[in-house]
Automatic annotation (TrEMBL):
Organism classification: unclassified sequences, metagenomes, organismal metagenomes
Organism: termite gut metagenome
Protein name as annotated: Cation efflux system protein CusA
Amino acid sequence: MLNKIIKYFLENRLITILLLITLVVWGLSSAPFNWHGGLLPRNPVPVDAIPDIGENQQIVATEWMGR
């Protein structure tokens, strides 16, 4: 199945290039960066960074009598 897909895209270079350009443009339009390009309508993915300021914790799984 994968070999057929690869063979198809190798034989149809125009479709491959158009698909690649479409994916790149779509990726640039949804990137969370503000490039002020203005050529594409933008719908960026919201990014929220919340730092973990709590203490480091480790989970220890052990067995004890009665368990």
